[in-house]
Amino acid sequence: MKRIYSLILLVLLLSCDKQQTNRNPFLQEIGFAFDLNLNLPTYSPLTNIGSSVYVGNQQVGTRGVFVTRVNFDTVRAFEGSCPNHAPNNCSTMTMNGSEVVCACEDYKYSLFTGQMLNRPDDGKRYYDMLEYRASLSGNTVIISN
Known about the structure:
With 145 residues, this protein is mostly beta strands. It is 10% helix and 30% strand.
């Protein structure tokens, strides 16, 4: 009986599909950790739900990060470089309300979900914003990758 269970377990393990990720070929996923003190005027907008800030520090992401306070206990952080081409002189996106815009092609992305809002219907592969880990601990937001 033990052999039958072992055989069934082995078959189940071998038949599992390995999940593949759709890694963005344009952006490197670099390691970093950075803290935002919400008591500082630069980051204090993040004490309000729905507010976003851009952190242009060279120690954070490729071209900085956009951080949004989604709700009472959730913050999200996304790469500041447009995910649909290699970083260049126009790829650092700019905030426009609850969206960011890439000046290269006018691609628009949501700061709440990271999704591309004006995806062309041309059959090509387009990427949503690269998201980093973000957590809230008291008056500090910790962003890392």
